[in-house]
Design goal:
Distance between the termini: 105 Å
Number of helices: 1
Number of domains: 2
Radius of gyration: 31 Å
Order of helices and strands: HEE
Oligomer: single chain
Largest sheet: 2 strands, antiparallel
Length: about 110
């Protein structure tokens, strides 16, 4: 009579693979978390000035920067408030002039 050999489960192969899989999952999770944190840090907002009822709010966002030409391209949104705004609240009561560095173009008058 021949003896039948029973196969033992191959747990020895699974044990070394489990920590490796967990390490890969942890690395992917850490990378995703760091990428999300970096993206949030790039969207930085700074505030200055007052909250007086009569004021002009200026929001500027950088669109691009030409490092070689040392020129940034900005989008500027000016919102007058209180006595500085007309009745509809969208346009200023007087012309505005944007003051820039004198080494580039000087002041930009209203169009």
């Amino acid at each position: 009579m021949s003896a039948v050999r029973r196969r033992e489960p191959r747990r020895t192969r699974l044990l070394p693979a489990t920590p490796a899989c967990l390490a890969v999952v942890a690395a992917v999770a850490l990378g995703t978390w760091l990428q999300f944190g970096e993206r949030q840090a790039l969207d930085t907002t700074y505030g200055a000035g007052s909250t007086a009822p009569d004021r002009v709010d200026v929001d500027a966002s950088i669109q691009r920067v030409d490092a070689a030409g040392r020129e940034p391209a900005l989008r500027v949104l000016v919102t007058p408030r209180g006595d500085f705004a007309e009745a509809d609240g969208l346009s200023p009561t007087q012309d505005l002039t944007l003051q820039t560095s004198t080494s580039t173009r000087g002041d930009l008058p209203p169009p």
